[in-house]
Amino acid sequence: MDNWPELHITRARFHLKVEYVDRFMVFPEAVMRGALGYFWHDSGERFQKLYDLVFGASRKGMQDRIATPPSGAALRCVSQGEENVDLEFTLFGDCEAQVPLLLESLHILGYEGVGESRCRFYVEGFPDYETKGLKEWVLAEPIGGETLPLSFEPLH
Questions:
Q1: CA-CA distance, 77 to 62, in Å (whole number)?
Q2: Please, which residues have CB within 8 angstroms of residue 70's CB and are 6 or more apart in sequence?
Q3: Does an H or E element contain 140, and which?
Q4: 77: buried, middle or exposed (CB in 10 Å: 19+, 13-18, 0-12)?
Q5: Average per-residue pLDDT in the chain?
């Protein structure tokens, strides 16, 4: 009963120093997702794959391929104190090659500011990131302290 699908997940965590944490943390995921979407859409070819991974296929992406890869990457912000925020991306697939572009995007957006109040931030240090199979992620991070007896069968 250990038939897990061969799906890899890449998780990247960025440490941010935020100018106004109280403003930033009102709707942090929505603000970051919106800002990144506008930025990647206007930036052209270099950020095309990132846009497709997070938001689904763009018009150009839909023209270039028949099938669309899974999208809707998880984005989570966790306040770590007065001005520290951890921003975590979870992307479907082996996406470690996209982490430098994420870092570049965050540097540019942090300088410009995000949200209505143009809240500025900067990325502190280099991101932590790794790619694992779906089974390894689930077993490494049990829910409620317990490893769930999950299995995937062809009928499910």
A1: 30
A2: 92, 93
A3: helix 134-140
A4: buried
A5: 79
